[in-house]
Amino acid sequence: MTLPEVVEKTEKYLLPTYGRLPLAFVRGEGCRLWDTEGKGYLDCLGGIAVCSLGHGHPKLAAAIAEQAKTLIHTSNLYHIPPQAELAEKLYHLSGGYKSFYCNSGAEANEGALKLARKWAKTNIGKERYQIITALDSFHGRTLTTITATGQPKYQKGFEPLPPGFVYVPYNDLAAAEKAVNAQTAAIMMEPIQGESGVHPATPEYLDGLRKLCDERDLVLIFDEVQTGMGRTGKLFAHEHYGVKPDLMTLAKALAGGVPMGALLANERVWDGFKPGDHASTFGGNYLACAAALAVLRIYEEDGVVENAAAVGKHLRAALESLCAECGTVSEVRGLGLMLAVEFNRSVAKEVQEHCLANGLIVNAIGENILRLAPPLILTVAEADEAAAILRQALAATADAA
Ligand SMILES: Cc1ncc(COP(=O)(O)O)c(C=O)c1O
Prior knowledge:
This protein is α/β, with parallel strands linked by helices. It has two domains: 3-56 and 303-400, Aspartate Aminotransferase, domain 1, CATH 3.90.1150.10; 71-302, Type I PLP-dependent aspartate aminotransferase-like (Major domain) (Aspartate Aminotransferase, domain 2), CATH 3.40.640. Helix content is 41%, strand content 18%. The chain has helices at 3-13, 46-49, 58-70, 81-94, 105-123, 143-148, 152-155, 173-179, 203-215, 238-241, 286-302, 304-325, 348-357, 380-400, and strands at residues 25-29, 32-35, 40-43, 98-102, 130-134, 165-168, 184-189, 192-193, 199-200, 219-223, 247-250, 261-265, 329-335, 338-343, 360-361, 363-365, 369-372.
């Protein structure tokens, strides 16, 4: 299909939920993508922090193909060997968390909210149901997770929203302490706010939230849907902080692009769910679990998380030198390969357009932030190539100003 044919069918047959760029990719290899016209791109977005092993990874593709030939799905009415194996692996990698599997980040968060409420009502008091989340957070697009998301633009028009959510400014411990009351069940936070522009939590904030939850018998939930699975240069972002949540959610990179989410619970809260309390038809099926097991195996064999840390440092330094050179960059933020460049003018879309024209995929968030979340297998040479294209784009937008 040509691009105009794809666009025509998209407009004719799909619900208009996405404002898409006029581009369609047909093939990928490593950190590269090719569009319908045969043009190649360096992918510094990785399917929005999903394709941590890049595209067409031979070992991941082989594991998925092998599992697809053997068995894709039976159901959770029966035991599922790769699900049990994945849960064992994640238990050890996370330091003692049991898993529940689903199909997306929103679903993982929905599960976390249900488990937190059930555990708090059962173990602390029947009146406990409120969840504290942060302003500018992002937790998904189901009715409950847009309510958890502290951004009115995602909630508008879908009211009435489920009750029981309270919002506090991010990185403001005093505000969180003040928001706790006799009805509070849990606090849910991203260790680094992703969707709103890559804003890391301060160490004091996460540490303070842990202490607050311990003192007031609350469940601490970390949404690691975007930050987890090596994105920040450690398998889970909370490892940078030395602060452990009670519940952690994963999705995005978990199965290398095969849809999968996970809710991980520690010993304090894992008996919050009893048989029948929560379920998913597809969750943790053979195909998704085989893909996630392959992702974790490749991470270990190829030192992928270590690569994310090293190349992330290199890319960040390159972006910081752009910041020093170029009057329009005001800040570079992030950890590992979860990075953002903030501009002091509304040029993000224009910079994104220049980058795309020159074969680099980046993501404009709002008017003045550019997000980079490349595959974790990015090389130093590819990071330099990305920085060089970005430098050109910044020069072009500065000239045009
Ligand atoms: C932190 C965070 N939580 C939840 C979600 C929702 O994940 P999904 O789109 O898989 O439902 C996202 C998606 O961007 C996210 O970044």
